Amino acid sequence: MMRRIVGACAAALALAACSKHGPAGWQGYAEGEYVYLSSSQPGTLTDLNVTRGQTVAANAAAFALDSIEETAARDEAQHRLTAAQKQLADLQTGKRPPEVRVTEAQLAQAEANARKAALQLTRDEAQLRAGGIAQAQLDDSRAQAASTAAQVRELQNQVRVANLPGRSAQVAAQAAEVEASRASLAQAQWRLDQKRVSVPSGGLVYDTLFRVGEWVQAGSPVVQMLPPQNVKVRFFVPETVVGSLAPGRKVDVRCDGCAARIPATITWISNAAEYTPPVIYSNENRAKLVFMIEARPAAQDAVKLHPGQPVEVTLQ
Fold first, then answer.
1. Contact 197, 38 (CB under 8 A)
2. How far apart are CA 195 and CA 218, in angstroms?
């Protein structure tokens, strides 16, 4: 009988020893790194497409501000670009075909006058040798023939110039004007796009900070988001333990209401000791030197945790 009692005590002591050396648990809490959605442009809030507590997917519409002025500026920039492009095309193609045909008709008329003047000059030279006309009349014929020939050459050059594009400097200047108009259009489109904000990464809509109809200053957050990958756990370990931990170490997180332990990975270890961490639940640990550690669960598990929720962390 005595041996049975001793054996039972030994078994109880062995069990107590095993529990003493079991995995240690450390207190902590869940925390979220919030994403604040805002616009770089001011305006009146016209659309609020999300509600507090809603889970939304990436690229979903979040909110929109009035964009009447920005739309008009974009349209104006588009028209200016179109006009600049047409002017450049006009410089590159030379004169219009009807204008060229007018010059060609003038050339034909000048060539006919030149032929007539050349014939008259030939007749007058013969008449002068026969003594039929004075020298002054021959001089007039020569001057008329030279004048009509010069007019023909002038119009021939005008036809060639009419078929040429604009001067290279003019074309280059207009091409630069086209690029400047294109840049102005891009700026106007960017300002217009800023009036509609989408969710960059799916997650929980933690809060909405404005109501439809209110004026929103540039840069003021309208929607507060909490993506699941931004949920982390902060817990505190004593000085005697922190040296054995390193980023990448796997831990288990347990919380009230969690059906199972949540695996997480240590991502950061504080270099500074703390005497009064934000959350300490064990009275025996209040006077000890502790270090803050952060661990992140997988995105699919992070939705089980809520910022501020107390947790207990153990090593895997």
1. yes
2. 10
Locate tokens 């040296």: which residue? Answer: 243
Pairwise CA distance, residues 90 & 97, whole Å: 12
pLDDT single digits (tens) 9-62:
333 333 333 434 445 689 999 999 999 999 999 999 999 999 999 999 999 999
Confidence of residue 6 (pLDDT cuts 50, 70, 90): very low
pTM of the predicted protein model: 0.67
DSSP 53: T
Residue 219 burial (CB count, 10 A): 11
264 φ/ψ angles, rounded to the nearest 5 degrees: -145, 165
CA 125 – CA 117 distance, rounded (Å)? 12
Rounded Cα distance between 234 and 216, Å, is: 34
DSSP letter for 285, please: G
Cβ neighbours of residue 99 closer than 8 Å, sequence gap 6 or more? 162
